[in-house]
Amino acid sequence: MDPRLKANRANWNDRVGIPATSRFYDVDGWLRDAPLPPPEETNVVGDVTDKTVVHQPVPLRYGHSSLGPGGADATGVDFPPVAVREATLLTNRAGLADHSRFVCVNAYDAPAALHGERFGVVYVSLGSLCGLPDVPAPA
């Protein structure tokens, strides 16, 4: 694994649990009030009704999980195992497991890990770019 990716993965594995208890993310309030997509997500991805969505990354956010009630079947892609585990637990707590799945893989290897699957919407969150040492896909 590229040393930059390895260091980034270790960093996120150490930090990913912070949002679960953070007042900023208010996970308990989100679960209580209805796990719907936050406006900043829907403004970017648009109407996802009956679409398939792939979203990268999954840590520190619950937006991916909430795309399920928006009518999408959502696949979250990220490479820190702790992030994928936390996202899976949160999705289960929200009752959205039927509309969400998570794949633990870095963005460069995602096409192979997803076996060439095609999606109606590809959504890369702002925080993803800092974790990609080479934005163009390697040949």
Task: Please give a structural write-up.
Helices cover 37% and strands 14% of the residues. It is an alpha/beta fold and 139 residues long. The chain is built from 7 helices and 4 strands. The mean pLDDT is 77. A 4-stranded parallel beta sheet has the order 3-2-1-4, with helices on one face. It starts with a helix and ends in a 15-residue tail after the last strand. It has one domain (3-129): Vaccinia Virus protein VP39 (Rossmann fold, 3-Layer(aba) Sandwich).
How is the largest sheet built, in terms of strand order? Answer: 3-2-1-4
Number of domains: 1
Largest sheet: 4 strands, parallel
Written as H for each helix and E for each strand, in order along the chain, the element string is HHHHEHEHEHE
Q: Note the overall shape.
A: globular
Q: Uncertain regions: pLDDT < 50 for 5+ in a row?
A: none
Highest CATH level, the class:
Alpha Beta
Tell how many strands the DSSP assignment holds: 4
Percent of residues in β-strands: 5-15%
Number of helices: 7
Mind telling me which CATH architecture this is? 3-Layer(aba) Sandwich
Report how far apart the termini are. 16 Å
CATH superfamily: Vaccinia Virus protein VP39
Name the average pLDDT.
77
Rg from C-alpha positions?
14 Å
